[in-house]
Every structure is written in structure tokens, then in C-alpha cells.
Amino acid sequence: MGVEAILVIAMFASFMVLLLLGFPVAWSLAGIGLIFGIVGHVMVEYLDYPLWFTWQGTIGVLDARIYGIVANELMVALPMFIFMGIMLDRSGIAEKLMHSLVRVLGGLRGGYAITVVLVGVLLAASTGIVGASVVLLGMLSLGPMMQANYNKSLAVGTACSVGTLGILVPPSIMLVLMADRLGTSEASVGKLFMGALIPGVMLAMLYILYIIIASYIKKDLAPAPTNRPRLDARAWFGVFWAILPPMALIISVLGSIFFGIATTTEASAVGAGGALLMAFLSKRLDMDTLKESLYQTSRTSAFIFGIFIGATVFASVLRGLGGDDVIEGAITGLPFGTTGVLLTVLFITFLLGFFLDWVEITLIVLPLVGPVLFKMGVEPVWFAIMFAMCLQTSFLTPPVGFSLFYIKGVCPPGITTKDIYLGVLPYIALQLLALALVFFFQPLATWLPNEVYGGG
């Protein structure tokens, strides 16, 4: 093992140790990068080690690289989409959707859980903020499902898992970051948004299918209520008016991107303005709400950009120490073909999701493995969507499954951590099934982008 490989392994090991000790991610990345930059400089300048590392070529260009991040027009879409999600969370749209759909579907066996999935899909496509979706779905649905004698694990697992759809279903801030990190026109934001549509909808359909089958096999899992409300034209009209605002927002944002009317950044501004208008029309917009939404947007954006800057320092030093060559050699040296290498990368990504957040994995791992796989002939959009689906599971897998913590904070008394873990297990299995389907049937991720943008 060469000196470069030892230094690269030491960098990743040091990062993991600091994370386990509870140090902030951004500071850990930047600090380790600077420390190993000094180590590389000392080894080259004073110990005459045969490294290609140069201080000026790594630390010396950080100012330009960091400026390139904050000056990137695509990055403007991040705070805009975050603001859109937070403002919609406060507009009352989800409550109206839930109440209207429960009136129509609540009388069916498993109807409440199916309602949660449908509301979650619309929330995912109009907010993209996992934490907000999970908390909101939990607050709106867990109480009624407990009153309807639903199984605890099914109820909490459904609300928790459906909320994570926001990280995959466009407009997703994760897909925006992935497109930026991959840095290729073959995996642009528009193509990734298109590529994620069919897998996202397919995953929601698998959730609904599981709920229907499970509730009919085991009658006490999700019993139908005895006092089923009467369905009339007024109930269906209520569903229509509840679905209309979020659907209009989804079409205006995604449609403007897909049909070339607006760039991703411009469409994010349309979404933010539309969410503001919806909050105003629903009479939920006041100065306190606006201030809180702007504060949360700034806080979340600062968190992401802080990790961005830390990851830039880390990646710059890693590349300066020969990390790209070490990782490319490790990947291409695996005793498999291209398919085996791709499966190995996805498996490692899935395992990393147990310990790291999707932001760190996207910013650190994706730029290292993506170009190597593309050289081996892997289709970029296909790989990016599968990578995103792997990252989605990181929200549900302990010990760092953030959705598990989000839902725990709003669970009614009597729902334990064990209930949450048991509840999400079937949905993790469904996510892996959906990932397998996309792996074996590549057009699920590539057909729509190719139809719209051409290619393949």
C-alpha cells in the first residue's frame, strides 16, 4: 500500500472518528482537510516524500473554489426551494388535503394510511423538505389512526416513511446538489428531476399496495371504521379544491423546467412566490410567519453551504494527496465487471447511510465515484437516481435515520422506539425493491429524460 493510499484512508478514518465524537460535520471536514494539507506540505517540503502534493495547488486555490460555489447560479435554487417548502408547511394545505381525502378514503380498510401516502406524495412534490413532511404527517395522521385502532407500527411506519419521499420526488434539493456535484450536462437538474418522477411515483404505489395487501391479510392491522361517512358530490368537490393548489404549484415549477420555459433557478423563484401566495390566500401569512420562515430558510441554507465549504476543503486536499487516483484504482481494481462495481458502490452508499447524512455523502462520495463509473460506461442519470434512492434509505436506517428522530418527537404516548423501528422495516424493504426494479429496468429512470431532452 502506497503513501497516498494510507493518507486517503487516514483522512476518511479521521472524519468518521470526529463524527462519532459529536463534532459538527462542516468543521470536521474543513479541519481534517487543513490538518492533512499541513501533513502533505511537511512531507513534501521537509521530508522529501515523492508526493505530487503542492500547498499552492490545494489550499492556495480554496478561495477561488469557495467563491465558485457561492457564485453558482444553480445554488440560488436551494434557498428558494427550502423557503417554498417551509412556507407551504405553514399554509394549511396539508391539513385540507388530509381532511378531504380521509372523508373519501377513510371508510376503506387501510384508508387512513393510504391517505397519508397520497398526501405525502403531494407534499413531497411541492415541498421537498423531509423534516417538515415527516413532522406534519405525523401530527396530522397518528392521532386519528390510533383512534381508528390501527396497528402502532403500521401507523408510525407509514407516516415516517412517506415523509422521506420528499428527498426523491422533484423538486428535490438533493437532486439539485447531485446535479451540481456530478458536473455533467448528461445529468443536469432537469434530467434528474425527470428521471426521479417514475421511481418516486412507483415507490408511492408500492407503499399503497403494501398497505392494501397487509390490511386485508391481517384484519386488525388497519380496520375499517364502523361509522363510515357518506360520500356525496360535496366530498369529492372538497378533494378537488384541496388538491388544486399544490397541483398548480407542482405544474408551474416542474412544468416550467421540463418545457424549457425557465431554468431551475427561475422555477425555484416561481415556487417560492407561489407558496407565498398560497399562504396569503389561506390567511396564514403574517409577519411572524414570514420572519420564522425566512429564519428557518437561512438556517437550513447556512447548514448546507457550511458543509459545502468544508467538503470543498476536504476534497481539495484529498485530490492533492492523490485521492482521485487511489479511489479510481480501488474501484476499477475490483474483481467484477462494470455491473459488479456499480452494485458495490451502491451497497457502500447504503451502508454509509447508516452513519452519515445524505448531504455529506452527496458532497464527498458522489464526486469521487461518479466520474469513475461514467468512464466505465454507466449511464449518468440511471446511476444518479439509484444513488439518490440509496440515500433515501439513510433517513430510515438507524442509528442516524433522521426521520426516526423527527417522528419520535410528535408520536402520541404509547408509541415506542421499537414500534418505530418495526414500522419502517417493511418500507425499507420496499425501497430496496424499488431500487432493484430501477437497476434491472433502466428505462424506469432514463426513458422520461430521453423523451423530453433527447438521447438514448
Main attributes?
456 residues; mainly alpha; 21 helices; 75% helix
Structural overview:
The chain is 75% helix and 0% strand. The protein has 456 residues and is mainly alpha-helical. Helix 7 packs antiparallel against helix 11 (189-217). The longest helix is centred in the middle third of the chain and has 34 residues, at 287-320. It is globular, with a radius of gyration of 23 Å. The two termini are 41 Å apart. The model has no long low-confidence stretch (mean pLDDT 82).
Short description:
The chain is mainly α and 456 residues long. The chain contains 21 helices and no strands.
Describe the secondary structure blueprint for this structure.
Elements: H1 3-20, H2 25-45, H3 55-58, H4 62-70, H5 77-89, H6 93-105, H7 111-126, H8 130-147, H9 152-163, H10 173-182, H11 189-217, H12 233-258, H13 264-281, H14 287-320, H15 323-332, H16 338-352, H17 358-375, H18 380-393, H19 402-408, H20 417-440, H21 443-453
Helix pairs in contact: 1-2, 2-14, 4-14, 5-13, 5-14, 6-7, 6-12, 7-8, 7-9, 7-11, 7-12, 8-9, 8-19, 9-19, 9-20, 10-17, 11-18, 11-20, 11-21, 12-13, 14-17, 16-17, 16-18, 17-18, 18-20
